[in-house]
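Table S2 (continued). Query chain:
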Amino acid sequence: MPKTCSEPRHRLHLHGPTMGTRWAVSVDVGPHLDTAHLRQALADAVDEVDHQMSPWKPASDLNRLNAQPVGHWLALPAPILLVLARALEVARLSAGTFNPAVGALIDAWGFGAARRAPDPAAIRAAAGEPAALAPAALELDAPGARARRLAPVRFDLCAIAKGYAVDRMIEVLAAHGVQHALASLDGELRALGPQANGEPWPIAIEAPVAGQRRTHGVIELEDLAIATSGNYRHFLDIGGQRLSHLIDPRAGAPVRHALASVTVLARACMDADAWATALLVAGPAEGFELARRLRLDALFLLRHDKGWTEIGLGRFAPGSERDAPA
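Corresponding output:
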């Protein structure tokens, strides 16, 4: 039977703007929680991530790193050093399908802060950068709280920073004594414990249909994070050709394959966020093999003429304990 909480609780919904989108928290609280203080602490946590890791804010720590001369050390706060370290590790494990050194390519194709449409000259210039060597393009010194670029590349953390911001919200909630909450930011979610009634948090997995909000299936979370990466929601339409916002660093161009979305479960939301991107960029065959080898809980939705087909691993595998697709 589900665990129940003896203290009377009610469901509180907190939210606010950040990173060009909104953060949100659903929390089952008792009568003694200072909700105003909690709301401010959550807003401060996600804003700190934004100020450190945004490619859109000229004074962000990420942009300071990108502007630092190659070979020169730069003092950085602990959170961005942590995220950079994890980004480099996922880049190494994924053989470059996840790559934080694609900032110039993202801008060149019109998905960054620099421009709103592809620029052929900028694409050619960015394709010549050693972006595929991200782990070798950055040196981190965690004890010294500093980093330095080893190659003239621009780093971008958009595929991991939002997940980390969700992790920070969970840390804030736990520090305030919260035991039952669900934190989200732009499709990345993490559950803290179950709901107060003992039931897991039900999470809808979106169907990969452009221009619509439809549910493909539902999975339940308890002390787990989930993230989905898809090529059907954010794109550019150039002369009738749809360009995905996801860049394949190996090709120097947007991804083009039948894989519509990948959903990943992990303990930390920044891991789920990064791996969802890595697997989607890798494509159906390579991505599935990578997820199988690393024993990831991953759901692949492949597009075809009549809709899409799902392939799951781990908790998403056929017969695993989750709700059937809608």
